[in-house]
Structures are given as C-alpha cells and as structure tokens.
Amino acid sequence: MNSSYFTYHINEVTFQLKDRVDISWLQELGTVFAVFDQQDSGNICFGVKQEGQKKFVKYAGARPMDYQGDPAEAVSRLRNAIPIYYELKHPNLIDIVDHFSVKEGHVAVFQWFNGECLHSHWSYPPPAKYTDPNSPFYKYKHLTI
Fold first, then answer.
1. How deeply is 141 buried, as exposed, middle or buried, from its count of CB atoms within 10 A (0-12, 13-18, 19+)?
2. Are 37 and 16 in contact (CB under 8 A)?
3. For site-directed labelling of 95, which of 27, 58, 86, 88 has its Cα 20 to 30 A away?
4. In this predicted structure, what is the pLDDT of residue 6?
5. Which InterPro entries has this protein been placed in (predicted)?
6. How far apart are CA 10 and CA 99, in angstroms?
7. Which residues pair with 57 in a beta bridge?
C-alpha cells in the first residue's frame, strides 16, 4: 500500500483515503462492520450496527482511492440528492432515515439492505458491467417489469 495514503482502522474494517479527514462522527452511528471504499463517485460508504439495527452510511467529503474529482463536488451531489431520496420513497427502494453535515462533508443514513453493488467497476469494469450476465448491473437491467 502506498505510504502517501492514509489508512484507517475502525472496528472491523480497514480502508485507505487519499487525505486525512475527521471521521470520528462515524463511531456515534454504531459499530462499523463493512466498508465500501472502491467507489469512483467520491463517496465512501459503511455498514454500521447499533442496538441490533443495521444502517448503510454514505459519506461525501473525503477522497476515496478510486475518486479522481474534487470532494466538494461529491458533497454537492450528495446534498442535492437528499430531497430526491425522500421524494422517491417506495417499498422497493432503500429508505433514507437521516442526513447531516459534518466538518468535512455530508452524510446520508439509510436502512440496511442486503444486496449487490450495481456499479462494481472493480469486478465488472465497462464494458463487462453492461454485457456480462453475472454483472449485478446487467442482471438488474434484465429484470422483468
């Protein structure tokens, strides 16, 4: 691992970011049991568990290893998406339960849902994402209406 990156160890997970950021707020949400750190969207996501309840936490404000953009752009996109998450509330979609600003970004908290990442570029880089029958995105796009 490149020593110019910052390694974080929180509860059951270890991950790297391109910059040092304060993510102490994450501990207040529960025990971190999963990290989704290979996103190229500018978000890093976590699975947290508190009092038997699991939540999915999306954070914009850091520079994940696969993100080439400006963290401020990712923060703006997440903030702009918040009203849409509430507007699209539906039994077949993940529920947003909270969102808040932190010193270095914005956080959205959702109910946990066991599933697959539709945009797993690390496992199915384009064009495989669109053409491989094992790709979660391909399977999703071929579901019946």
1. exposed
2. yes
3. 27
4. 95
5. Kinase-like_dom_sf
6. 21
7. 46, 109
**Is residue 36 a contact partner of residue 44, using CB atoms and an 8 Å limit?**
yes
Binned at pLDDT 50, 70 and 90, residue 3 comes out as: low
> Which range is most confident: 36-45, 62-71, 74-83?
74-83
Q: How many residues does the chain have?
A: 145
User: Where do we find the tokens 């994450």?
Assistant: 26
DSSP string, 62-91: S-BTT--S-HHHHHHHHHHHHHHHHHT--T
Strands of the chain, DSSP E: 6-10, 13-17, 31-36, 43-50, 53-60, 96-102, 105-111
